[in-house]
Amino acid sequence: MYKLVKGVADSFLRRVSQALPTWQRYTVEKSFPAREDYQPTLPANLAMFSAEVAQRFAAPIHFPPHHLYRLRNVHATWDGAIFHNLRLFLPSIVYPKFASRFQDTLLLRQWVGTKVKVPVASCVAICHDQWSVENYYHWLVDTLPRLLILRQSHPAMLLLLPQPLPPKQMPDYIQRSAAVFGFTQYLPITMRQILQADCVVLPALTAPSLNQNPELVQQVRAELVTALSPDPVRATRKVYAARAAKGVRSLVNEPEVDALLQELGFEKVYFEQLSFLEQINLMRETTVFLGVHGAGMTNMLFLQDGAKVVELLNEGYGDLCYFRLASCLGLPYYFVPCIGTNQELANQSDIMIDISLLRQIISEII
Predict the structure, then answer these.
(1) Which of 64, 99, 158, 176 has the fewest CB within 10 Å, making it most exposed?
(2) pTM of this prediction?
(3) Domain chopping of the chain, boundaries
(4) CA 87, CA 99: separation in Å to the nearest integer?
């Protein structure tokens, strides 16, 4: 019965919202022109594979213009979606095609939900979205470049942050990284609350999600390292970033992989057991960084120049965001194709590695 009633209500509200005028309650404070296309550096071991495989890595990255918006008299969800009445402000979400996730009866919460109000005459900045709300990669690579844009004209501004429900706590990397860029005043809200604000400033994504603006990513890297791990260190360690047990993209033949990597001098690390600062310091000491496609690979941000990146990637479905990130950072990138065990799960499938191929690739590196 609940699903039926909600479905009818959602359908009605969707029709109403579609009939309303287009969004008018915003101004563009600053525009950033489209950057020229960027051609990532190809994987260092691409010659080992077919032309068909190589083609996956050949596409250039396109950068449309992006803007800094100011909005008046609006509401926002904990994951950064901004709306007024029954209309969603599309630049506040990752892709317009995701709009249906934030419309319909969710928007009624501006009148009946628990609200958090911004102090009168104050303005709050929103720099995260539904992908960066609880994801290490998207926070560091999508949100932090937006903080750089925000800082140009609104330094030290009040910042909306996503507050997980108990017993979860806000990850330490969120506030610690924001503080590096000068943002130390926060307004946290949970998924059960709705922000009500007379003024919101929104820097849009600086690159299409799962892509990166090279100059901004390099600046993020430089400022984080300078602030949090400035002492020079000699990189000698070989690190394997293991996936958490019972997670997605598990290695079906992990015991064989563990045995090989131990033989070759790799340390097995679970990043979720380390603080943000511990992860940074570990990467500063690492010369070869290997891992399964996943958020832990984001820590290549903190590798020193000349370190090498090895990604175990589903050969049919894996996104190439870490390949592109390594290119932005000037790090040699090696691709190890893996076989997905369940095509219906696509990129979330468990994977199996050809041990002999893995040995061959690592042997060339070390």
Answers:
(1) 64
(2) 0.92
(3) 17-53+64-216, 229-365
(4) 10
